[in-house]
Each structure stands twice: as structure tokens, then as C-alpha cells.
Design a protein that fits this description.
The complex is a heterodimer of chains A (153) and B (287).
Chain A lengths: L1 H53 L6 H14 L24 H4 L1 H20 L3 H22 L5
Helix pairs in contact in A: 1-2, 4-5
Chain B lengths: L1 H9 L17 H11 L1 H4 L20 E3 L2 E3 L17 H10 L14 H4 L4 H11 L17 H15 L13 H11 L5 H4 L17 E2 L6 E2 L14 H10 L13 H8 L4 H12 L3
Antiparallel strand pairs in B: 1-2, 3-4
Classes of the chains: A mainly alpha (153), B mainly alpha (287).
Chain lengths: 153, 287
């Protein structure tokens, strides 16, 4: 029956359309959640390392390596999280500024500066070495947040 | 006609006169401190197309987006043609504390003279003396893009009746010397209230709601409240606040880098530790 095929096609199309729409939504939210989880892991690492820099806690490279390892895990999918369709979430709020996408080269450079500092902290093996490279890591966070994260609220 | 005449009279600039200037021997080191506290460089940033200019100099020309239009804050280096080299001390004080330009017009209050008005004039003169020591940069003024600029600028004269409080900052004798230092730096040069205090429907600072936070001047997001920072769990104590201002994200204080605060923090970080501690003490006391 002609109308039967038409109906099936229509239903099938609607299902596929609906699926892809919901997939797209899910992926923007998932990407944003992924980014935010990674940022929380950055924050957790800072929480471990800053007291050592300030001298409130003794230097402990094992603890540093452990928190950085956890950070690596939380941020493993970083490259997949910045599609143009992730500028706004469906249910999750993001504080990412549009400049991330309009100034992709600047975003890349700021991220690169952070990553370089991050690698240096990871490679440091003693207290003096750690203290020497640490400030660049924090500056790396700031370099990105200043330009590419909007204030909350 | 009468209305127009009234507008004209009421909106006229009311500058200070030479008699208002104190006798003062400039202290350049103090001027540099207050230049950093006042964050002059953040807005008067050298435009990217000024190839030969040190980007750290306040040579101006960088676009500043404001609710009334795009401004290009001018050159503060001592170049006599394009900077402030030919200005008198009185010109400078009128600009900084009354928002009146060298040509006698009103500045748009994106230039926070509404806070600088609370400063000691001696401190303003010290900033002027410090600026005079900087290398001169040729950076010609760039015309602001303000719709109805003439009316807007003149209208600011009217707005100043409510928006510009010319009272000097006063110490609170019941408080410590360091608290008072912090209060002065925050209120006058630091001009923190310009963003951290909400505005009334007339766009003047609503000082009854001082430091309660408000909408971000760039239009998106909010500027956080500075009240009860410790009670609300934002910081541990006054020292923690000072530490955030001194180090920012270098010490993991990630709340002080977005929305323009990163630049503010980097300016404050150049102050002596004692001044930063004083700001921390004052801010911690805001309830």
C-alpha cells in the first residue's frame, strides 16, 4: 500500500530526526559536563599543590603525581568537547565565552601555554624544581579564564 | 526655550580652580603605587597598532565598550601633542576628580572619576608626577563612537548632580590604621564600587547597597558581592582575601580572573604587601 510505505517512511524519518536531535542535545550537555569535570579536577589538583607552595603542607611528590594522574583521566576527552555546537547547553549552563570559537587560535595558544606548564609540573621531581615551575601553571589557568570564561550569574 | 536654557546652565562643567590645589611636593614613588591601585593602565592600554609603543605604557587607543558606545581612552604618556605632557596640574586634577576634559567638556563616567573624586588631591598630583616620568608615546586621540555624542556628553553634566559625589574619603577613627588604608584604596583609587555596587535607575552608584554586587557592565553575567566574603565561605580570612589579590590564579584563586578582574588583580599585585593586606582587612570587614 502506497500510503503504508509513506507512513513508514515518515515515522522512520521522524524517529531518525528525533534521535539525531536528542543526540545532538545530549552531546552538547555531555561535552559541557566533561569540560566542567576536567576543570574541577584542575581545581582539586590546585587544592593539593597550593598548600605545598604556601608552605602550609610539606612537599609530597607522590601526592602531586596522583592528583595529576586523576586530572589526566578527567580531561582525557578534552579534544572532543569543544565543537561549535557546545557553545550552549540544553540543561547545563556553561560559562564558556563565544571568543573560544571566534578566536580559536587564541584559545589554542592559551590552552597550549597551560599544557606546557602542566607538563613541567608533572616532570618536576623535587621541591625546588616544583616551586620553580608551579607559578606558570596558575598563570596558565588565568591566561585562559581571563579571556575565555565569562563571570557566573 | 526655558527648559533648554536650564539644561544648558545645569549641565555646565563645574571645574576646580587653582585655589583648590594644595601646595604639594610630588612623591613619584607614591604616584606609581596609586597608579597601580587605580588600574589606569587597564583601560588606557596602548592600542595594538602602536607598533613601537611598550604595551605596558598607558598610551591609550584600545577600544573600551561601554553602554553608551565605544570609547578609546586617551594617551596618558607625557607626549605634548597627543598625550598629557602639555597639561597643567589643574587640568589633570579636573580630569581625574571632576571628569572634565582639558577642552572643558564632560568625560563619560566609564572613566571612574566618580570614585577618584574621593581621593586626596595630593595623591592625584603624585600620579600625575609619576606619569610624567614615563616615556612619551605618540598616540593620537581616536574619536569615540557614541550615538548623539553631543547631547550625551552635555547630559553628563546634569547626571553629575546625582552621580558625582565630590566629598573626600574620610577615615573612621574607631578602626585601625590598616583598615583605613584599605578603605581608602578600595573607595578612592581602587574604584571597586564602580562594578561591585549596583546602580540606580539613573545609573548612579546605589551606595545604600554598597558592594552588594550587580550586573556586569559588559552586559553578560554578574559582578559578585564583596559583602561577608568569609561568612559566605568565599575566603577563609582577611589574609586569604589578600592572598587572592596578590597572587590570583598563580595560587589557584580561580574566582579573580574572569570578567575583567584578572587585570584588576594583576594591577593590585604590584602594590606593596602592606597595602594588599590592608585591602584584605577592609574587605573582610564588609558585612
Amino acid at each position: 500500500m502506497k500510503s503504508g510505505i509513506f507512513l513508514k517512511t515518515l515515522t522512520g524519518g521522524a524517529v531518525i530526526l528525533g534521535l539525531s536531535v536528542s543526540l545532538a542535545f545530549a552531546s552538547a550537555d555531555d561535552a559541557i559536563k566533561g569540560r566542567q569535570g576536567c576543570m574541577k579536577a584542575h581545581g582539586a589538583s590546585m587544592g593539593v599543590m597550593v598548600p605545598m607552595i604556601k608552605g602550609e603542607k610539606p612537599y609530597d611528590n607522590t601526592a602531586i603525581q596522583a592528583t595529576l594522574m586523576a586530572e589526566d583521566g578527567a580531561c582525557a576527552d578534552w579534544a572532543k568537547w569543544w565543537g561549535a555546537d557546545t557553545q550552549k547547553g540544553e540543561t547545563v549552563e556553561t560559562f564558556a565565552k563565544p571568543e573560544i570559537w571566534t578566536d580559536a587560535a587564541g584559545f589554542e595558544a592559551a590552552g597550549g601555554a597551560w599544557y606546557k606548564a602542566y607538563q613541567a609540573v608533572k616532570a618536576s621531581a623535587d621541591e625546588a624544581g616544583f616551586k620553580a615551575v608551579f607559578p606558570a601553571l596558575g598563570a596558565g589557568c588565568q591566561g585562559c579564564h581571563e579571556k575565555f570564561r565569562r563571570p557566573k550569574g | 526655550m526655558l527648559g533648554l536654557a536650564a539644561f544648558w546652565v545645569l549641565s555646565a562643567p563645574r571645574p576646580l580652580t587653582a585655589a583648590d590645589l594644595p601646595a604639594h611636593t610630588a612623591d613619584i614613588a607614591n604616584g606609581e603605587k596609586l597608579y597601580n591601585a587605580a588600574g589606569c593602565r587597564s583601560c588606557h592600554k596602548a592600542a595594538a597598532d602602536l607598533k613601537d609603543a611598550d604595551p605596558n605604557l598607558p598610551a591609550g587607543g584600545t577600544a573600551l565598550k561601554t553602554p553608551v558606545g565605544t570609547l578609546y581612552p586617551p594617551n596618558l604618556t607625557p607626549d605634548t601633542e597627543t598625550g598629557i605632557g602639555a597639561w597643567s596640574d589643574l587640568d589633570f586634577v579636573n580630569a581625574v576628580q571632576r571628569g572634565i576634559s582639558n577642552g572643558g567638556g564632560h568625560y563619560i563616567p566609564a572613566f571612574p572619576y566618580t570614585s577618584y573624586a574621593a581621593m586626596r588631591t595630593e595623591d592625584v598630583l603624585d600620579i600625575r608626577a609619576y606619569l610624567a616620568t614615563l616615556p612619551a608615546v605618540k598616540s593620537p586621540p581616536r574619536a569615540a563612537a557614541i550615538p548623539l555624542a553631543f547631547i550625551v556628553r552635555r547630559g553628563i553634566g546634569l547626571w553629575k548632580w546625582i552621580g558625582l559625589d565630590t566629598a573626600r574619603w574620610q577615615p573612621d577613627p574607631a578602626r585601625s590604621e590598616t583598615w583605613n588604608r584599605g578603605s581608602y584604596l578600595v573607595t578612592g583609587p581602587g574604584h571597586c564600587a564602580e562594578c561591585h555596587t549596583p546602580r540606580t535607575i539613573f545609573m548612579s552608584r546605589d551606595d545604600r547597597k554598597a558592594f552588594q554586587g550587580g550586573p556586569h557592565p559588559e552586559g553578560v553575567g554578574k559582578v559578585p558581592s564583596l559583602r561577608d566574603l568569609i561568612g559566605r565561605g568565599r575566603y577563609k580570612d582577611a589574609k586569604d582575601i589578600a592572598s587572592a589579590l596578590q597572587f590570583g590564579e598563580i595560587m589557584g584563586y580561580d574566582k579573580v580572573s574572569s570578567g575583567g578582574m584578572g587585570q584588576v588583580q594583576s594591577n593590585i599585585s604590584k602594590l606593596p604587601e602592606t597595602d594588599i593586606a590592608a585591602i584584605g582587612e577592609y574587605l573582610a570587614s564588609l558585612k
